[in-house]
């Protein structure tokens, strides 16, 4: 925290001055002594003059109010996080057959769905979120919207399919993000930021465009792509008899973090790896904060003024309730 007018902090000297004055008033002796010939009467009077410590509550609240008001005069500034307002985020998810692998519990796809649900719950209401899945070909499940129930329904429809067409998925996600960005721009009256969050667990096996050709489209549109490589190097997928071979077989389904890093690097995004469900959750939370909020340095004098006003009202209320006047 910084202060625009630090010299006003000298006003804090009023706090100990008022405290000292109050203590002096409290301990001031009567001008004329009184004589008591009966010791029992003297003892009862002395006992009645002992007041509980709660009588200091109004003064304590008043001193805190003075301290907050003095700090407000110094015009404090703090770094705070605020919403970016109208933002469009497209969640692009791989639903290839390898997402059935359970090296990430409960499965890769299940872990991704849970992480994205947590991501949605943290999004400000002004942020539009869309959902695009891709396997052999991309599919727009939910256009960018602020209706979280639509997104939740879209996520519940995700099912593992077959191949992996990363480049084509990126191309469609760019079109969806651009459309959402234009709508947000019309509502905000200024250019609204857009981003794509791509989660995949394998290398490209299908599609017309290569991953880097899809990344080139995102770069040309000025849309950063944040990538998440989900899964472990030891991930396997059990195929039933007749699916690929006449007998049951296990195949290795390794993620391809190298191509995902290249996509992020080409579009000025960031790349992550998630080997566990908790790591996937953490990544989506971090991306939510990065994409939906911004850091600003702003004056927070009003915060201290508000607290001072509340404390002053509390001091007055305590004074009325507890008896002694300030």
Q: Give the count of helical stretches.
A: 10
Helical percent range?
Answer: 40-55%
Q: What is the string of helix and strand elements? A: EHHHEEHEEHHEHEEEHEHEH
Assembly state (oligomeric) = single chain
Structural class: alpha/beta
Average residue pLDDT: 84
- Please give the largest β-sheet: 6 strands, mixed
How are the SSEs placed, and which strands pair?
Blueprint: E1 2-3, H1 14-27, H2 39-48, H3 57-73, E2 76-83, E3 88-94, H4 108-122, E4 128-134, E5 138-145, H5 148-156, H6 166-188, E6 194-200, H7 211-220, E7 225-230, E8 236-239, E9 249-252, H8 257-266, E10 271-274, H9 277-292, E11 293-299, H10 301-322
Parallel strand pairs: 3-4, 3-6, 6-7, 7-10
Antiparallel strand pairs: 1-2, 2-11, 4-5, 8-9
Helix pairs in contact: 1-3, 3-10, 4-5, 4-9, 6-7, 7-8
Structure in words:
It is a single chain. The protein contains 10 helices and 11 strands. Helix 1 (14-27) packs antiparallel against helix 3 (57-73) and helix 4 runs antiparallel to helix 5. It has a 6-stranded mixed beta sheet, with helices on both faces. The mean pLDDT is 84. It is elongated. The longest helix has 23 residues, at 166-188. Helix 4 (108-122) links the parallel strand 3 and strand 4 (128-134). By secondary structure, the protein is an alpha/beta fold. Helix content is 45%, strand content 20%.
């Amino acid at each position: 925290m910084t202060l625009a007018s630090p010299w006003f902090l000298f006003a804090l000297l009023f706090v100990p001055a008022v405290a000292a004055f109050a203590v002096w008033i409290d301990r001031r002796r009567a001008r004329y002594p009184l004589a008591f010939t009966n010791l029992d009467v003297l003892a009862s009077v002395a006992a009645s003059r002992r007041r509980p410590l709660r009588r200091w509550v109004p003064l304590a609240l008043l001193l805190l109010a003075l301290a907050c008001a003095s700090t407000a005069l110094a015009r404090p500034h703090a770094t705070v996080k605020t919403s970016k307002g109208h933002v469009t985020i497209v969640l692009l998810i791989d639903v290839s057959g390898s997402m059935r692998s359970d090296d990430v519990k409960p499965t890769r796809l299940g872990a991704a769905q849970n992480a994205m649900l947590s991501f949605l719950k943290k999004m400000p209401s002004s942020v539009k979120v869309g959902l695009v899945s891709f396997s052999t070909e991309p599919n727009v499940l939910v256009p960018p919207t602020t209706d979280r129930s639509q997104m939740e329904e879209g996520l519940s429809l995700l099912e593992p399919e077959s191949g992996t067409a990363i480049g084509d998925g990126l191309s469609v996600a760019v079109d969806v993000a651009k459309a959402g960005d234009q709508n947000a721009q019309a509502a905000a009256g200024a250019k609204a930021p857009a981003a794509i969050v791509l989660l995949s667990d394998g290398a490209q096996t299908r599609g017309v465009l290569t991953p880097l050709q899809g990344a080139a489209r995102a770069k040309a549109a000025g849309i950063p792509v944040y990538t998440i490589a989900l899964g472990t190097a030891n991930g396997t997928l059990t195929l039933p008899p007749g699916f690929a071979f006449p007998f049951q077989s296990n195949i290795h389904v390794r993620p391809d973090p190298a191509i995902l890093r290249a996509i992020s690097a080409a579009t000025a995004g960031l790349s992550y790896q998630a080997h566990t469900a908790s790591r996937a959750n953490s990544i989506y939370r971090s991306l939510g904060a990065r994409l939906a909020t911004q850091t600003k340095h702003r004056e927070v004098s009003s915060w201290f003024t508000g607290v001072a006003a509340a404390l002053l009202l509390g001091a007055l209320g305590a004074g009325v309730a507890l008896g002694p006047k300030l």
